[in-house]
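Lab notebook, bench 4. Still working through the backlog of constructs that have no structural model yet. Next entry is a single chain of 362 residues. Request: give me the structure tokens for it.
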Amino acid sequence: MTQTPCPTVASDGTIRQGDLRPAHRPLDAAELAVPERAAMAFVEHRIRTRHPKLVDVTARRAQLDPDALRFALPRTVNEKFAWRKFFDRDPRFPIISDKVAIKDWLRRNGLLAAAPTIWAGDDPDAIPEAVLERRCLFKAAHSSGAQMFVVPGETTMRDLRRRGRRMLGRRYGFKAMEWGYDDVPLRILFEEELVPRAGAPVEEVKVFVFGGRIDRILRIFNRYDGISGQVWRADGAHVVRPSPGEPIDIAPSVSDRPPSPNWAEIIGHAARIGALFDQMRVDFLTDGETLWLNELTIYSQAGRYTHVGNDPAAPAALHWDLRQSHFMRTPQRRPALELYRRTLRRILDRAAPGPTGAASGS
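Model written out:
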């Protein structure tokens, strides 16, 4: 779908991604024909009058005045996240947002497996007693972050049923208007817990992929016991290496741990999965040996990209190719939407660098 990268990983973990082309030049100075300018102005007005809540949410998260944002012709990563919420109804989004359904999707597409499911359902009273006999993870299938660890001898069935009812009573993504969660069935599930090998930390690896280009990697160690983290960032030559001066929102300290033994495997899976979408955050869970896909995140941080999310010249913004989104690849039934789709397509094609930069299609 997007340009498929073939990253190579050096012995020190440095990632080289080759000669990747941006999708377009910075769009803040894009020259528009009079009909194009009129079409963009009309869509911009419709967005702001019909979806004021999402406009305000985006402005608050981006820490900008709402009038400084552009949605019809998004220029930055944060604006593109909002555009995804407004327009992109990719039928894969509800599937990969569902922590039960995604496992079948991964299997059908020959991708890395997620943690095995022990039990899933929509009735807390149907939770089997057997889940109390092993360490496992209890979570909501329809949300992000709603989970608890099951500890034999400590966790009770009353704990699970009470927590399960709480999970089932909350619809995730509503406040930030994350459409991908709207059609996910309300379910709870138990997954196997990754028990690390001796002396190894449990590591979360979050790989941010834009148009097939890995832009940022966040490593989180021991989230529930002495959390620390590490950021890797791509430079102008698309080489990804540690960025020790970059702060981390969720980790109080920065770790200098070397890459895990399966680092190259992680990067390979991230590149393969990321290339299936115009943009995706691909999350893994590992102890350096066992490797599971943890999550595919459509709206990272509810649609906010750290540090460079408001920069129209940031490589992440330039490589995120909206032409590869479901909306842009799908003719729209409503004439006004189809006119907008075609107009935006022409603008983005014209902003592509060089004669081979424009993607094909109507």
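Notes after review: Residues 356-362 have pLDDT under 50 and may be disordered. Residues 27-91+319-351 form one domain. Flag for follow-up if needed.
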